[in-house]
Amino acid sequence: MAAVKYDTLHLHITDAQSFPLLLDDVGDLHLSELALRGAFDRSKIYTKKNMRELVDFAHGFGMEIVPEIDMPAHALSWGSAFEDLIVRCKTVAGTTQTPHNIYPLDPSNPKTYRVLKEVLRQVSEVFPSKYLHIGGDEVDQRCWSESPSLMNWAKENNLTVQGITGYFEQQVVDATYALNKIPV
Asked: Mapping DSSP to helix (H, G, I), strand (E, B) and coil, where does residue 163 land?
């Protein structure tokens, strides 16, 4: 990348299929389970030390790494560790060619925000970039419509199905700014 004058690597760390970054457990949040249960395989996990080495290596070539933690969609891998964090939308998933990409995080679950804030905090400690990519794309809102508890929560909070996305994104943007990072 340096040879062709690229100076930024957008590192898409997580996706529906895998959460390969091994994070530290904090209190009752067993974040290590995200990788131990959510990665393709236990041999396909990156430690924070591995990532710091990559950051240092890139820095030596004048390059910056902008990490991405994809959410609220593309979150099936999160559900391997925290089943209650994702919305199981069987009807929508059953009608799509790539059903594993459908499952989003559950914006009505307070634990979702506890987990994602700690994930973002730990990622921010590893990657010194002022930017933090927070995903936000390709949310299939029909999935949220399948969850009665999520729809009840939305109604109580005066949110439409479309408004759920905005609510979630605002929580993540605020959490990112609180870490002195610029959300992408």
From this structure: helix
E strand or H helix at 64: strand 64-68
Residues in the chain: 184
Which is nearest to 99 in space by CA: 115, 86, 118? 86
pLDDT recorded at residue 81:
94
Q: What's the one-letter identity of residue 72?
A: P
Distance CA 145, CA 136 (A): 18
pLDDT < 70 positions in the chain: none
Question: What is the model's pLDDT at position 82?
Answer: 95
Cα atoms in the Cβ-side hemisphere of radius 13 Å centred on 180: 4
Which pLDDT score, from 0 to 100, does residue 16 have?
85
**What's the CA gap between 49 and 111, in Å, rounded?**
27
Give the gyration radius of the chain's Cα atoms.
Answer: 17
How, if at all, do strands 64-68 and 8-12 pair?
parallel
pTM of the model: 0.94
Q: Which residues contact 95 (CB under 8 A, 6 or more apart)?
A: none
